[in-house]
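Example for tutorial group B:
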């Protein structure tokens, strides 16, 4: 059984998605862009190049499949960490269920869960978002992000995952005063592999995050 230490300082935020991205409204009435919208601004060029390379029809098929796969796998992970996973409920979700089962042994390294799919925001960064999980991973408090993939990823491909996770670590500290020790990315792959990436150098990704924020403001000001 997973232990939950839910923090009452984490409150649900209302979000709205438009062509400009996703924005959250804080309890004080401030509207902040999501960290996903920020990160996507700097990864969209590679996505556009990929779409041109494979063609729009194939790109749409792959993107829809990946989105459905990821959404279902996240639901299973959330149920499992909430101690209420029932496999029968997901028997028709063959691929996501396989990915969940592949990931399950490393999920068991998680405990003392502070937040699961919780809303966070920062008045300093003027960012908000919904974090997958804040919990101890192998005994150290971490921001934990769950990913699915067709094949294994190289470490150099996922810096933007760590930038996003770092933003959540900063938001959580601002909201609660609790410091996160590390960032953890867990990836379940269709080829049967599981990847666990752990990062302790949060300052490295803080610098990149601040750079993103500055450049985003400059590029979207007009």
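The residue assignment follows.
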């Amino acid at each position: 059984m997973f232990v939950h230490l839910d923090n009452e300082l984490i409150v649900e935020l209302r979000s709205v998605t438009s062509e400009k991205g996703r924005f959250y409204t804080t309890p004080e009435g401030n509207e902040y862009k999501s960290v996903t919208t920020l990160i996507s601004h700097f990864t969209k060029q590679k996505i556009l190049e990929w779409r041109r390379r494979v063609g729009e029809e194939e790109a749409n098929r792959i993107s829809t499949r990946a989105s459905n796969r990821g959404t279902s796998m996240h639901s299973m992970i959330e149920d499992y960490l909430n101690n209420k996973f029932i496999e029968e409920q997901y028997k028709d979700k063959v691929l996501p269920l396989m990915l969940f089962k592949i990931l399950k042994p490393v999920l068991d390294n998680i405990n003392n869960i502070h937040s699961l799919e919780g809303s966070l925001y920062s008045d300093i960064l003027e960012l908000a978002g919904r974090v997958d999980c804040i919990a101890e991973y192998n005994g150290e408090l971490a921001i934990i992000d769950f990913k699915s993939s067709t094949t294994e990823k190289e470490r150099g491909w996922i810096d933007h995952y760590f930038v996003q996770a770092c933003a959540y670590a900063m938001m959580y500290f601002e909201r609660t005063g609790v410091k996160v020790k590390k960032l953890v990315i867990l990836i379940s792959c269709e080829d049967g592999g599981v990847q666990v990436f752990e990062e302790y150098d949060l300052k490295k990704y803080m610098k990149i995050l601040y750079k993103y924020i500055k450049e985003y403001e400059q590029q979207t000001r007009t």
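Residues 14-220 form a domain with the Lambda Exonuclease; Chain A fold (CATH 3.90.320). Compare this with the pattern of hydrophobic and polar residues in the output above.
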